[in-house]
Amino acid sequence: MFGLFFLILFAPGVSEFLCTSSDLEMSYTFCDSTAHAFMFNLTPCSIMNKSAWKAALTWIPRSDITFLKIVFNVWYDGAKALHWKEVLCSGADDEYSVCGMLKGETIATAFDIKGARTKFPKGNYNIILQGFSDDSENNMVICLNFTMIVKQDPF
């Protein structure tokens, strides 16, 4: 685990494998060349007959998280499939534990990802996840480029 943290902290631009199985392969890189203290894990590494996954996230932000807007873009075999934006932290009555974290504090959290209604057809997915510290999307605090290869149709 220390090796993974060390590699991510000091080797920006390097692709990190999240998992690989008979039906799924996932990896990610950072969108910029800045070193990040970041780790993400997902279990199980399968989408066949699965509707929920456990995710674990550890991140040391480089700025205070008083406002956080997430922009999520998904491409499937080169075609844009989804564009979604959500303000997670607004500074007032926030429900997420990441809200209010200070620069340099370690965010360590685990959460469920549920996708019972989503069936991913076989193919290549490119997922860009951006986090902004302002509503105008000018101040990016993190950007991840996930690659997901679905090897079997779930139908």
Chain-wise SSE layout:
Elements: H1 2-10, E1 16-20, E2 24-30, E3 38-43, E4 52-59, E5 68-76, E6 79-89, E7 107-114, E8 123-132, E9 140-150
Antiparallel strand pairs: 1-2, 2-9, 3-4, 4-7, 5-6, 5-8, 8-9
Characterization of this structure:
With 155 residues, this protein is mainly β. 6% of the residues lie in helices and 48% in strands. The chain contains one helix and nine strands. Strands 1-2-9-8-5-6 form a six-stranded antiparallel beta sheet, with no helix packed on it. A three-stranded antiparallel beta sheet has the order 3-4-7. The longest helix is centred in the N-terminal third of the chain and has 9 residues, at 2-10. The relative contact order is 0.23.
Quaternary state of this entry equals single chain
Radius of gyration: 16 Å
Q: Supply the number of helical segments.
A: 1
* Biggest pleated sheet: 6 strands, antiparallel
Give the CA-CA distance, first to last residue: 36 Å
Q: Helix fraction?
A: under 10%
Briefly note the structural class of the backbone. mainly beta
Describe, in short, the structure shown:
The protein is mostly beta strands. Helices cover 6% and strands 48% of the residues.
Keywords:
mainly beta, globular, 3-stranded antiparallel β-sheet, disordered N terminus, single chain, 155 residues, 6-stranded antiparallel β-sheet
